[in-house]
Amino acid sequence: MxxxxxxxxQNASLAREVxxxxxxxxxxxxxxxxxGNTALQAVTPGQVGTLVTKSGQYRILxxxxxxxxxxxxxDVERLRGGMRVVLATxxxxxxxxxxxxxxxxxxxxxxxxxxxxxxxRSQFEPLKPEGLDLxxxxxxxxxxxxxxxxxxxxxx
Length: 156
Prior knowledge:
Strand order of the largest sheet: 1-2-3-4
Largest sheet: 4 strands, mixed
């Protein structure tokens, strides 16, 4: 069983940890499809389901796990941007070691330590197609008058 752990060690009280374990495994899409909704219910928070198809291998995880991973990925991107600023100010301080550039370098390094965690969402609002108002439909379906496909005559 493999475990993936990611921690933001900056401040222990703000650290966000994601631990994922191998969850359900479906060797074919047909097996996944026939299990229906129970297949997805088997994927609980902290578990990663694996679906193997002819076109590739897919990982299935809960919304909360996805949001945590997405938040960590965004943190990494922000840190990368911050590191570029620190490197640029460090190069400037090497070339011009005056008080202003050294202060800029100190501020850049201090800002890196103060980066807040990104928020994660536990769920999203339901998606609605744009420009579609479902509540104002005047269509009443009269099921008795809907034409049906032709049915083959019964054998005698």
